[in-house]
Amino acid sequence: MNYSNIIFEKEGNLAIVKINRPKALNALNSDTLKELDNVIDAIAQDDEVYVVVLTGEGKAFVAGADISEMKDLNPMDGRNFGMLGNKVFRKLENLGKPVIAAVNGFALGGGCELSMACDIRIASNKAKFGQPEAGLGITPGFGGTQRLARLVGEGMAKQLIYTGDIITSEEALRIGLVNKVVEPEVLLDEAKGMANKIAKNAPIAVKLCKAAINKGMQMDIDSALMYEAEVFGLCFSTEDQKEGMTAFVEKREKEFKNR
Ligand code: CAA
Fold first, then answer.
1. 195 in any annotated domain
2. Which of 35, 57, 133, 190 is catalytic?
3. Binding site membership of 57 for ligand 1 (Cβ less than 6 Å)
4. Ligand 1: which atom is nearest the Cα of residue 133?
5. Do residues 103 and 112 make contact, with C-beta atoms less than 8 angstroms apart?
6. Taxonomically, which superkingdom (predicted)?
7. Which pLDDT score, from 0 to 100, does residue 101 have?
8. Contact call for residues 20 and 57 (beta carbons, < 8 A)
9. Is 85 near ligand 1, meaning CB less than 6 Å away?
10. Count of domains in the chain?
11. In degrees, to the nearest 5, what angle opens at C-alpha 196 toward C-alphas 194 and 198?
């Protein structure tokens, strides 16, 4: 499929997805959200892709949902727009492959929310994070009220959302919103380096780790540990488990096959 607002490339076992509306600082309009939805489906079905890196073209990661598109929405259209964003971001969050956000610049509103739907966030030291929606007369609408509170805790999420403060990547690191901060020139290489490191592990095991963490975080501890035992057991049905443990015992390099 051809994309107008997204660049999709493959490098070995990595998929690199770039939001590509630099003139609007990669603001997410409906068309871009639908393209993102399509690209996630394509990646889900592509057995060659083990890990995804998501970034933005130009000086922004994503400066939010598209304000020009939202300005004149009626309540039902607003609800539908919010539901579209939530559907796409949830699909990304539940994708059976890890997604690393390489946050190259502004990650505001829907952009901060998009980064939070990824598994891991690596930020350039030029990146800026925030949920400025209340200053526009709206609430965060693509999961910000939920994922920010889960990531950084209720108190800090409330502070950021109520004030609309824009914070630096260093502050985002301090509060646990991002995993790592690097120089802009090395951002993509850092993200790809981490992605390749993950891609060297058994893809099915990594996928099940993601499912166990994501699902377990929504469960009580006993149910979550039971779920962990189930996915742990499932690993023993894979060729890669046999290969990983045999290679260890035979003191040789392992060769995973995603089977
Ligand atoms: N929607 C639509 N267009 C946007 C945009 C957005 N979220 N953010 C930036 N743009 C556009 C600007 O309108 C401008 O377009 P023109 O050149 O046609 O005028 C272009 O991108 C460049 O932007 P600026 O000239 O403003 O660039 P700057 O460097 O001076 O400022 C900025 C950068 C501080 C990020 C500023 O653009 C800004 O404040 N943007 C809006 C940020 C925001 O409020 N995001 C939250 C949106 S609401 C949301 O996301 C809801 C939700 O949860 C789902």
1. yes
2. 133
3. no
4. 48
5. no
6. Bacteria
7. 99
8. yes
9. yes
10. 2
11. 70
Tell me, yes or no, whether 135 and 245 share the same domain. Answer: no
User: CB of 25 closer than 6 A to ligand 1?
Assistant: yes
With 0-12 / 13-18 / 19 or more C-beta atoms within 10 angstroms meaning exposed / middle / buried, residue 37 is middle
Separation of CA 5 and ligand 1 centre (Å): 16
Separation of CA 44 and ligand 1 centre (Å): 31
Ligand 1 atom nearest to CA at 142: 54
Q: Separation of 47 CA from ligand 1 center, angstroms?
A: 36
Q: Is the pTM of this model over 0.85?
A: yes
Q: Verify whether ligand 1 is closer than 6 Å to residue 160 (CB atom).
A: no
The chain-wide mean pLDDT, for the chain, equals 98
> Domain residues for 40?
6-199
* Model confidence pLDDT, tens digit, residues 46-103: 999 999 999 999 999 999 999 999 999 999 999 999 999 999 999 999 999 999 999 9
Contact 59, 108 (CB under 8 A): no
Q: Which amino acid is at 219?
A: M
Task: State percent of the chain over pLDDT 90.
Answer: 99
- For residue 2, name the pLDDT band (cuts at 50, 70, 90): confident
Distance from residue 224's CA to the centre of ligand 1 (Å): 40
212 and 188 co-located in one domain: no
Cα 171–chain centre separation: 19
Q: Where a domain ends, among 182, 199, 216?
A: 199
Is 133 a residue of the active site? yes
190 and 225 housed in the same domain: no
pLDDT tens-place string over residues 139-159: 999 999 999 999 999 999 999
132 and 219 part of one domain: no
**Residues 182 and 221 both lie in one domain:** no
- Same structural domain, 63 and 106: yes
